[in-house]
Design brief:
The chain is α/β, with parallel strands linked by helices. The chain has a domain at 37-162 and 236-304: Rossmann fold (3-Layer(aba) Sandwich), CATH 3.40.50.1820. The chain has helices at 2-20, 72-80, 105-118, 132-143, 165-172, 176-200, 204-214, 219-228, 236-244, 264-271, 287-290, 292-297; strands spanning 36-40, 43-50, 57-61, 84-88, 125-130, 148-154, 249-254, 276-280. It has an eight-stranded mixed beta sheet with strand order 1-2-4-3-5-6-7-8, with helices on both faces.
Amino acid sequence: MIWGLLTAVLLVAAWPLAEALRRPIAARDGSEAPGEFCSLPEGRTHLVWDGPADGPVAVLLHGLTIGSHMLDRLAGGLAARGYRVLRYDLYGRGFSDRPRGAQDRAFFLSQLEALLEARGLGGDLTLVGYSMGGAILTAFAAAHPGRVRRLVLLAPAGLGQTPPRLADLAVRLPGIGDWLMAVIGGVVLRRMARAADRAYGLPGTLSAAQSAETRFRGFLPAVLSSLRHMLAEDLSGAHRALAEATMPVQAIWGGQDEVIAPGARARLAALNPGARQLLLPEAGHGLPVTHVAAILDEIPAACTH
């Protein structure tokens, strides 16, 4: 009985201990970060600019687990096409701070709106969002249709996802799910990143960056909170609003995507018949890395913007 009680105590203690043993974000040397930092009401946000200073602005937003550096090649391609490209790390990822709070639609829109205000960016924005970033930018565009010129969605979340088993369990089981994410979530994410590298020929630097993220305090709670909130939202209403606003929407999907639900493309077609859609049959969920040229072919150059 004593050994059973001791085991139970150790298991319970593993949750806060695992997070406490991770490195604080303050230990991440800001000098390593490209770009700059912007102090916002909820914390510092890391951002990077690419492209000509006088080009039309394109905001490029990453997904759930890997920060803005995942989109380096896509940002470079858009910059070469004449755009002034703004990338930033969502709270809880990359070099940005890790504020507490439910990572829901309001949480992420607050960060984006504050960043745009701080940098004096009003309207005429081209938005390019990947996975969860696509869901966030869809919500922003629906809330501020007059500020958006075009919305480009790359394997967007918000119309159905198929999360891995651990993520599904962590979302559905409060307490137990938090323990699972804190204690073994980093191991699982690192294995998934290496598997994706092998399956889709992704650069090894991405799995290395993912591994590094899991060892910083605040990252795994941020991922879990996003799974429970932002990624649990159905964005049907936002897509209907975009259709009513007749906003140009382009969605690009991977035919081998293991994350986005197979029916998401059909749902978008029903909600917004005017949206242009492209299926890349051989692409997986990492299409912003593996199919950069195909994506750039679908985005008009800035000179015809």
